[in-house]
Amino acid sequence: MGLVGTVVDAAIGWMVQTILGSFFSLQMQDWTHQAGLAEDVAKLESEMKSVQIIVVAAEGRKIGNMPLSDSLHELKELLYDAEDVIDELDYYRLQHHTQGKGSHAAASTNPEGSCASSSYSPDLYQRVRSSTNKIISWATTDRKRKRDDEEPTQSLMLPLDIKHDISDRISRIVDRLSIVGKSVQGALQLEILGHNNMVSNQWQSMARSSRLTTSIPIERKVYGRDVQRDSIVELLMKGKTNHLGVLPLVGIGGVGKTTLARLVYDDERIKDHFDLRMWVCVSDNFNEQRLTREMLDLVCKGGHENITSFDALHQKLSEEIRGKRFLLVLDDMWEDRNRSRWDVLLAPLKHNEATGCMILATTRMSSVARMIGTMSWVEVKGLDETEFWSLFKSWAFLGSENQEVVPALQSIGKQIAKELKGVPLAARSVGALLNKSVSFEHWRNVQSKWKSLVKQDDGILAILKLSYEFLPIHLQHCFSYCSVFPKDYKFTEKKLVCAWISQNFVKRECHTETLEETGKEYFHNLVDRGFFEEFESHYVIHDLMHDLAQEVSSNECGTLDIFHLKKISPSIRHLSIITSDYDEELCNFLSEKLESEVKNMGSRQKLRTLMFFGRSSTMLLRSLHTLCKESKMLRLLKIYVTAADMSSTFSLLNPHHLRYLEFIVVPKKNISGFLDNTKICIPQALTQFYHLQVLDARSYARANLVVPPPTGMNNLINLRHIISRDKVDSKIASVGNLTSLQELTFKVQVDGNFNIRQLASLNEVITLGISQLENVKTKEEAKSARLIDKEHLKVLSLSWTDNIMSPKHSEEKTRDDVLEGLEPHQNLKHLQMSRYSGCTSPSWLASKVTSLQVLHLENCREWRIVQSLEMLPVLRKLKLIRMWNLMEVSIPSFLEELVLQNMPKLEKCVGTYGLDLTSHLSVLTVKDCPQLSEFTLFHSNYFHDKQKSCFPSLKQLTIGRCHHIIAWKTLPLEEMRALKKLELIDVPVIEELSVPSLEKLVLMQMSSLQSCDWISAAPPQQSSTSQEDLEFSGGFGGCTSLVSLVITGCPDLVSSLVTETNDNLVLPTSLQHLTISPLPDNLQSYFHKGLACLKNLKSLQLHHPQFGVLEGLQHLTSLGRLNILMNPELSCEWDLKLQEQGQGGVSLTEEQERALQLVTSLRRITFEGCLNLVSLPANLRSLDSLELLQIRRCPSILMLPEMGLPPSLECLALDGCSEELYGGDRVSDADLAALSALQSGFNKCEVNNMRLQVFRNVSWEGTLQHLLIDPLLNPLRFAREDFPVEWVRVSPIRREVIFIRWESVYKVVIEDVNWKNKLKELLAILCTEVFATDGDHHVLMSLDHLDQKSYNTSTSTEFPSTVRESAASGNEWKRVDREVDHGGS
Q1: Cα separation of 114 and 99, whole Å?
Q2: CA separation (Å) from 944 to 578, 949, 1001?
Q3: Disease resistance protein winged helix domain: from which residue to which, for each copy (predicted)?
Q4: Rounded-to-integer distance, Cα 82 and Cα 74, Å
Q5: For residue 999, what are the CA distances in angstroms to 370, 568, 898, 1075?
Q6: Is 1265 in contact with 1383 (CB distance < 8 Å)?
Q7: What is the signed CA dihedral for 901, 904, 907, 910, rounded to 10 degrees?
Q8: What are phi and psi of 484, to 5 degrees?
Q9: Cα–Cα distance between 1198 and 1217 in angstroms, integer?
Q10: Cα–Cα distance measured from residue 53 to residue 786, given in angstroms and rounded to the nearest whole number
Q11: E-only strand ranges, 527-620
Q12: Is 1292 in a helix, a strand, or coil?
């Protein structure tokens, strides 16, 4: 349908290949033979091969009539039906093995589980030439004679009604395939062996090659490229060596690469600098001989026309350019596969005797730029809004310039221009359409239809389509499928690849590769070719590329925007429904519209993808249920549900085909207007989805999966990924049956369903975390995990849980043996070990795991030396953290990241001196190593080499509390040109800093630091910067790249900033995160007036501010976090000033209240140490984005705001406040409202100095997950087993505290210098992690330093009976030694 005038492409043939390779395997043959369907399946396979022969022969032939178009469309639909029926048959095969013989049998038959996921290397013509007669013969041999004997067995394999239904469907498909296949063959007048008039497969390539470019400008005026032109001209003129330089320009089609290249080519500076200029259009026809001839045409007047020898052409070109400095522009490069062809083309150019010769190449593909570039490529992006509007107007109003001032036309024009995202070719195409009639009616018409009107040969979509047509067929499918996602959707590589796998788009060609690895190659190919753009940690598709995807997939992919419903193709297989945050009344109306649209959608029964975008889709339950019930062929479902609707929704799903299920649980609001904190369960029905590959059980913050998961999860033998923040995989019994899993978190238990032998068969796993290894008792038991056989395993984490009630000496030898038995495969790339108590490293670490790239050792407390790391040739990252007794480490060369942290006894960190040790290093962290005195990396030569940087790649440097490794008053970092993040903590010797342009700077407790000079350098594309190019500037205003700045405890530096800058801006406008402590009075006025300039500021922390600063907040539209702190000394100083002025306290003025109210983006506010602040802002409730409110040490605040707190609030933290605020003897309505919120709305609450009666007013209903108590003033006893809290902090303990069997508690933090005296209470808590910290939340000491004998509870009489029972039952008390995240702050 709609194919007339196009050609028969490879899509249908690719579909046949995919189905044949995926399903018609030996295991399927065995199964269908046993089930009595062998003859039906063999006929279907035979008929599909016949279709394949026809389609391959017809590929590239023009479709000239509607009947042929209709037949090809029906052929494609029949192939989809064939895939569906075979996939359903495969489901019953899996069901039989799982329920009959057990899942292990099914899994062992095929490591991938499902036939559709099997490895397949497509070889089209080999499969076409293979004989089909053997299959028919095999299927029909002695069929009648065996029918009676097989029938009872077959009925057990497959119920008769299902068997007959599948047989009938296959027969109908076979009959129609035969008829339609012959119809197509007749229409094309083909013979099986070929046709003399058949269009070549190179048709598309020929069409693409027809585009030619020249150096002659065709634009009337070029807008917005002057700055980039000057930068490129400077780069091209910088070359001073004999080496040929290649500078690529990279950007999507139509963005203006060729125009920019012309602008550079015709620049007078370029004409003066180069002796020769050459312009050659390469396109996708990369022919070395043709390109050489074109260069000769430009450099000589003749004499080469009759030369046929390629070598002679090269000799002639070499003679003509010898001694001449040249610029060669190679426009529209596509070749990225064969580097040798590129080298051949460049051979005569490289042997020129002149210096500074350059090549400027334009390409759409970053893979081309990587292959040919000798310097960083220049990315060509769309024009900015102002310049683009000027360009757009020049086309739209051409000849009618007097109409530019018409407001209606301006409005329409700007709306259209905004959609074009700055692409100049789009401005030309759409602007020319508008220019045909400069009238309101015509422009309105174009506004609604412009996408369909710019498909002509020179339009933007036609230009972009060249890139699409250049893709291999499998990448075309992957890209076009992305049209089902909304515009501006943020893609993640992993999830998109899994979606492609669910649709059977990904085929691995090598058994050593996983499907995901192959899919990642697909993805990166599309990124390289410009179809995706990297955006922060995600990827996006340019709007025009998204339009292209919709254009090429319009027959198979559709999108319904519930507020803008439009007709979609009746043949679609992939559908997304987009909703916004509508209210319930409007959603009821829209639901009726959607219901009507769904009923009219004839293809809903055959949908393979159904995705909902938008939380309000939960209000469309009726339509949602209709779609789920009727969409019988779904492979992928993304859905928003409420906890109450989960079971009913999933019971409607057909389990036969579903591969990817993503459900997002949306909490509902309760009667108080707060969102319910809902606990959810994975429905039991999902254990029957045997094809399921991805279970994405994400949820909003207040929804949590209840574990353990349902019985039967181990039946999902094709499950590859479980995505959940609740570690569901660690609770699946007999997880060893899930042989396709790619990631697993496994907690070893003595129970057979969770012992380490479960890992033996998981040979596809890539990321594996094994904890509670103390439950593995012997080396043989450890070997039973068969880690050494897992060739795909790339990331391995091993951790033990120390048991303070177990004698240490009896376990040391056991743990050494166990670790030896956990030897991984030599392919392992990343190893992390934590809390290993053995004295030595395993023998296999340096000798066997030679592919190791990352080694992370944490809290291996008995290790004293880490050695033999030089035997790991590709080790790139080394992290050593909390190695309490480590004294010496030898670091290997070529490291890229080195982290040394919290090692109190470390004295030496040495390596072989030289550039190999430093040249690749990008991250260096040395923190809390007070005894470290010998550190090779901090040798003075590395920091004082004036010729060149010894750290050319260093991006992040952290030095903290290591007083013996730096002895220079001036720390010269100016040569570290790659440095982006610098953190210096308590390095008292440093007085001056010289740093390059940074993004993040943290200076803390730098008591001697007086100045910080910034260095401005040449443009980033420049390969090197000489000393005379550097510009030094004091203060921070000149550092326009700075995003995050923290200055605390640096009084001299802060004062110098004020003195030096005077009335100028102290800080750059690029800042997003700012902390200054203390904030002196002479800086207050700047902040009052100057905060408005920090438009990008997202978080602000101020110490000792005057509240007048708040008046500057109203302009900070991006501010999400505000902390106002005052230390006791400054607070007392302020108190004296207030007394002198006769004031007893302060409140926010009306202006300050109003300013704060305007910052609606605020998500977190903290008031700390404001002793004289008597009231909170009255309008807090209006901050509808506020999630966290912290009030610490503000004793003058007596009540919460009368207007109440915002419904969005998730966490309330009270610390050191008045009894009235806690409830005391007077409880206000606002306080009661807040207490109500504790039981119904919050998922986290921190209460400090709180009296017991507050808890008497609260009935716990399972909403709180985090409770923080600091300190207790009354005895407190919680004895409910269903207590909902999961995270507890008590600081410090002053009275009796008894915890009795909190099943849900997993973490406890005790903040008390005398915490050892209360350790006995901890032994009765069923928790995972125990911390002991001081008031600043730093770990005081390791629990390992305790005298364990003194805390043996076996003879204790002080514990309640329930506690003694708990201790005697063998519950394990676990702890982690690390810095504690201060909950909620």
Answers
A1: 16
A2: 59, 9, 22
A3: 484-549
A4: 12
A5: 26, 47, 20, 14
A6: no
A7: -20
A8: -75, -15
A9: 8
A10: 46
A11: 533-535, 538-540, 557-561, 574-578, 609-613
A12: coil
How many Cβ atoms from other residues are within 10 Å of residue 214's Cβ? 11
724: phi then psi, degrees, rounded to nearest 5: -165, 145
Which amino acid is it at 1301? Answer: R
First to last CA, the chain: 59
Residue with tokens 């409007």: 586
Tokens of 486: 């909304």
Q: Angle at CA 773, nearest 5°, toward 771 and 779?
A: 140
pLDDT of residue 114: 66
Provide the strand spans (E) within 884-1025: 888-890, 897-901, 908-910, 923-927, 934-935, 956-960, 970-972, 981-985, 992-995, 1000-1004, 1011-1016
Residue type, 1004: M
Which tokens is 467 given?
Answer: 């890139």
Tokens of 9: 């492409």
Of 132, 155, 1, which Cα lies nearest the Cα of 73? 1
pLDDT at residue 1135 in the model? 54
Q: What is the pLDDT of residue 1296?
A: 34
Q: What is the DSSP string of 684-696?
A: GGGGG-TT--EEE
424 prior amide bond cis, ω within 30: no
Q: How crowded is the C-beta side of 1156, counted as CA atoms within 13 Å?
A: 26
DSSP state of 605: G
Work out the number of other CB atoms within 10 angstroms of the CB of residue 980: 18
Tell me the per-residue pLDDT of 862-915, one tens digit each, with 9 for 90 and over: 888 887 888 899 999 999 999 999 999 988 889 999 999 999 999 999 887 777
Q: Answer positive or negative: Cα dihedral of 579, 582, 584, 587.
A: negative
User: From CA 1180, how far away is CA 665, in angstroms rounded?
Assistant: 29
- The pLDDT of residue 503: 95
d(CA 618, CA 666): 8
Distance (Å, whole) CA 91 – CA 608? 16
Q: Which value, to the nearest 10 degrees, does the dihedral of the CA atoms of residues 711, 716, 721, 727 take?
A: 10
Q: Beta-strand (E) ranges in 608-669?
A: 609-613, 636-641, 660-665
Residue whose token pair is 């514990």: 1359
Please state the φ and ψ torsions of residue 1032, each to the nearest 5 degrees.
-100, 140
Report the alpha-carbon distance of residue 382 to residue 225 in Å, rounded: 10
The first and second tokens of residue 1247, run together, are 């209460």
Task: Return d(Cα 1350, Cα 1347) in angstroms, integer.
Answer: 6
Token pair 């190449």 is found at 361
* Tokens representing residue 1135 in the block: 């108190």
Q: Could you identify the residue written with the tokens 């909620």?
A: 1384
Q: Determine the Cα–Cα distance for residues 212 and 468; give it in Å rounded to an integer.
A: 18
Radius of gyration for the alpha carbons in the chain, expressed in angstroms and rounded? 35
State the residue for tokens 């003025």: 1149
Burial class (CB in 10 A: 0-12, 13-18, 19+), 1218: middle
Residue with tokens 């709007």: 543
* Of 1303, 1362, 1291, 1363, nearest in space to 1328 by CA: 1303
Tokens of residue 339, six digits = 């580097």
pLDDT of residue 414: 86
622 Cα distance to chain centroid = 33
**Residue 773 near residue 748, CB atoms below 8 Å:** yes
CA quadruple 223, 227, 230, 231: dihedral positive or negative? negative
Cα separation, 1275 vs 342, in Å, equals 80
SS3 content of the chain, % helix, strand, coil (to 5): 40, 15, 45
pLDDT < 50 stretches in the chain: 1-2, 4-5, 102-112, 118-150, 152, 190-209, 701-702, 804-807, 946-947, 1017-1034, 1059-1061, 1064-1065, 1129-1130, 1134, 1138, 1224-1385
pLDDT score of 944: 59
Closest CA to 674 of 1161, 1211, 1209, 1212: 1209
CA distance 1045 to 1068: 10
* Contact in structure between 886 and 863 (CB atoms under 8 Å): yes
Task: Supply 481's token pair.
Answer: 């499928």
